[in-house]
Amino acid sequence: MALDGVKLDGVTMIEKLNKLGGENGIGIVDMVENRLVGMKSRGVYETPGGSILYKAHEALETICLDRDTQHYKQQMVAGKFSELVYYGQWFTPLRQALSAFVDNTQEYVTGDVKLKLYKGNMILAGILTSPYSLYDEEIATFDEDEVYDQMDSQGFINLFGLPIQGAGAQGPVKLQTGKTGIWTHHVRLAGARPFIPYPSFHGAVPDDMIKETAMKTVDRTVPKGTIRKRNDFNSSISFDSRMAREDILGSMAHAAMLAKQGIISAADGGGDPGRLAGILADLESGALSIDMGRRISTPLWRAN
Q1: CA neighbor of 177 nearest in space, from 213, 202, 211
Q2: Average pLDDT of every residue of the chain
Q3: Cα dihedral 83, 88, 91, 97 in deg (nearest 10)
Q4: N- to C-terminal Cα distance for the chain?
Q5: CB–CB of 196/265 below 8 Å?
Q6: Is 97 exposed, middle or buried (0-12, 13-18, 19+ CB in 10 A)?
Q7: pLDDT at res. 292
Q8: Neighbouring C-beta atoms of residue 13, cutoff 10 Å
Q9: How much is the pLDDT for 244?
């Protein structure tokens, strides 16, 4: 290990980091913990040197460990290992096994980390470097490249979503209130972009907002009760009309972004933000009225 380019043994490293960290308010922990016998106790600890080393080491692991190993170590090993040490169970088979796992993961964890210490904060102040870094900017980019075919993601997304589609076929989702949620559906209003409401409400939900529908996946059977659910779905106009303003505002932002990127022209497909602004003005002034008896909700599936 080295600090500012000077190689140090473990004890000297901790002593120097304790001094640097202590001068900058690093490593003060005020916590309520659970003792071995279960009672709660409050403790105030100061660990400036250990906190700095932990922060630097954790940062290196983000570029040197593969995703699954890093997540497993964080989620399954770290908490249990600290619990064993806290309980005084160092000389146990489980602690030895976990230590063997950790030792194996650290084979390629090495490199340089630059930290800024300021008023109790430890801030990464530069690019992490390691001869074993797994980060590759060319692979990570969202831009066009020759490393891999980004169209491959389409097939992956379809396969990755299959379990979710299967679960959705069992029935509508549940809201926090325990009532039936609203499945994804499209609403079209005067040429506006489809608005997609999701089943994520908080608190009480009015009964007239609770609707059922079903979604047919490609080449799969429409779930039982399709006709009734289709009718319930098409009767959701009262809810759809309340979301018209948000729908249009979202469409304006979306169209403006696409036009700015040169993906569409300003007038392509009725996407001109000016036209949408006019529709919004007519809607708010009352010049544009919605016929509550006309079906404007269109399910994603069509009954056979």
Answers
A1: 202
A2: 76
A3: 0
A4: 69
A5: no
A6: exposed
A7: 52
A8: 18
A9: 77
